[in-house]
Hints:
mainly beta
Amino acid sequence: MSQDCHSHPHHDHHHGPGCGHQALQHEDHVDYLHDGHLHHPHEVDGLVHYDEHVIAISATNPDGCEHRLTACQEDGHVHGPGCGHEAVPHGDHVDYIVDGRLHNPHGDHCDDHGPVTLL
């Protein structure tokens, strides 16, 4: 499934190996997590351009409450801005990456929205 080209506005930072942002395998390419956005660098007319990508809801990365992770919040940890886990767009919401899996806070537990491949 390919992504439409949704341009990220002005971007001073150049993403690539060693740039300091988490690289993530996304479909058939590499994206970089940056401030809760999934950036995909590519060239447009010879200039580096960044697209905003989203992990699609799929059988691998479902959107639902079938797989509850109660240990997520046993120690009082609640996922959200500044929680220490990388935020990543998934479908129409934001999940948090914990040990290579997407966690979605939901009431008194987290839902497991499947694996991601960190590079």
